[in-house]
């Protein structure tokens, strides 16, 4: 019989690539992860890992097993959701993740509604970059979260997650005067921290316009980004939720680029009462904010 906890470790190794990264994410030591994966190989009866020095890669058999693991783990989530649906009252903990501009505009009103309608539900909020959301959902650090994709940064499908559309926003060029994107090939740029979706979006949108931006400042808070634009420190691309109250000396020029926000949750949890309630509250909040 295959151990479910070990299957989960194998799945995380498929996503994270290294045993050290799996250990950090799952609160194991690297040696414990290695021991559990070795035990899984014995259970499976076939090699699952190819080891070259400190590097490991998954064998074809391991990749097949990961596909089965996704189905098995989703079925367990579904069983848990069905049991929760049989309870009279909605209780327990609901962990929600959201990116900064959504916390005030979408998440806060949803939290008010959830607290009012389900007072016995404990709500825990984590603010994080959408790029880290899939990992947090898979490892049970979150139950529901908001994920993003930009026209130039499409999201990679994750078989462990289900998603549904929530909101679509315009991307604006923030400058001191009315200009076009192409006019700023020699300008100083303000972009997010490297590795974030906002940073990647800025780079790719500018490259599509024929140049690579010279990023002078790395800032993740859009109010700070707009303040820097107002101070003459550069130009930036800002999504609609981050540009609701621009400084008076900042001009926002709408681009054809869009940012799409989706609700995400682990596959199999869609019918869990707490997840159902969160999805409904977030959709209602997004509708009111339009």
From TrEMBL:
Chain ranges of the HTH lysR-type domain: 2-59
Q: Alphabetically list the UniProt keywords.
A: Activator, DNA-binding, Transcription, Transcription regulation
Q: Which domain of life is it from?
A: Bacteria
- Short name of any one Pfam family annotated for the protein: LysR_substrate
**InterPro entries tied to this protein:** LysR_HTH_N (IPR000847), LysR_subst-bd (IPR005119), WH-like_DNA-bd_sf (IPR036388), WH_DNA-bd_sf (IPR036390)
Indicate the family of this protein.
Belongs to the LysR transcriptional regulatory family.
Q: What is this protein called?
A: LysR substrate-binding domain-containing protein
